[in-house]
Design brief:
Radius of gyration: 23 Å
Distance between the termini: 73 Å
Largest sheet: 5 strands, mixed
Number of domains: 3
Number of helices: 10
Order of helices and strands: HHHHHHEEHEEEHHH
CATH class of the largest domain: Alpha Beta
Structural class: alpha/beta
Strand order of the largest sheet: 1-2-3-5-4
Length: about 270
């Protein structure tokens, strides 16, 4: 199979996975094309243009164009912006233009990039604290065994704006997102609480990578495994604090269980 045929097949598989909402396979083919790199951009771009000018229903066009544009954006942000401008200028549905604009809103130009223990960190500049997030991360990474970070490709430290999660792990790409919670000053009374929360979130997401969890968000078993991993590293990082907090948490859990049992008994009587 020639390189051109390989690219065409991968694009077809990506589109098929996107249209049937098979996110796992979509990510697989996204990564395949991403690894091929710039030689695939021309073919992907022409495919987007063909969908744009087609008579397909809006839903299908939206899914296909968005999936392919996200791919180009990951490969080359400037190419994605040029193609987006061209499509919008030629006239397209509002749904598609809005989504394409949102894809291009994210740019690595808004991130500081550095490495810790071989892992590339992208720190969003708009967080702008008065302290160094990098120094804090370097300390946290010192608590994580190097082998547990093997194959982690990148970690994004992002602001709270528009985020409805504390963190997530993206298998296949082996990338992690951590939302940075907390005030901009280390002298704020809630600073250390928020930093502890961020630290636990990072370890939790690394725990998903350590266990090589596949897609399946909100899986209780996977969440428990990731939490156990995070608790182990937190105990190493803050032995005194954890030794004090664990008994308190256990007491609160028992109290909540007793309260729930009492409520059930009262409902049964009434």
């Amino acid at each position: 199979m020639s390189g051109e045929e390989e690219i065409s097949l991968a694009i077809q598989q990506l589109i098929r996975a996107a249209t049937i909402h098979n996110f796992k396979k979509q990510l697989k083919w996204h990564k395949t094309l991403y690894q091929i790199g710039k030689p695939a951009i021309s073919k992907i771009s022409s495919t987007i243009k063909s969908y744009h000018s087609s008579n397909l229903d809006l839903r299908t066009k939206h899914i296909c164009i968005s999936a392919l544009m996200r791919l180009i954006h990951d490969m080359d942000e400037s190419e994605a912006q040029i193609l987006t401008d061209e499509i919008i200028k030629s006239g397209c549905e509002t749904l598609i233009s809005t989504h394409l604009k949102s894809i291009n809103e994210f740019t690595l130009k808004n991130f500081d990039q550095y490495q810790i223990k071989g892992v590339t960190i992208f720190e969003e500049r708009k967080i702008s604290p008065s302290y160094s997030i990098r120094l804090i991360l370097e300390k946290w990474f010192g608590n994580v065994p190097t082998e547990d970070l093997k194959e982690v490709d990148r970690i994004y430290i992002v602001s709270r704006k528009k985020q409805d999660y504390a963190g997530n792990y993206m298998p296949i790409f082996f990338s992690i997102n951590v939302v940075w919670y907390g005030p901009s000053s280390r002298y704020h009374p809630l600073f250390w609480i928020s930093v502890l929360f961020n630290e636990h979130t990072l370890y939790h997401e690394i725990g998903h990578h350590f266990h090589r969890h596949a897609l399946g968000w909100k899986d209780p078993h996977k969440e428990k495994q990731a939490n156990r991993y995070a608790s182990k590293i937190m105990a190493k990082s803050h032995p005194v604090l954890v030794s004090v907090l664990v008994p308190i948490v256990r007491i609160l859990k028992k109290a909540s269980i007793r309260k729930a049992v009492k409520k059930i008994q009262e409902d049964a009587i009434t």
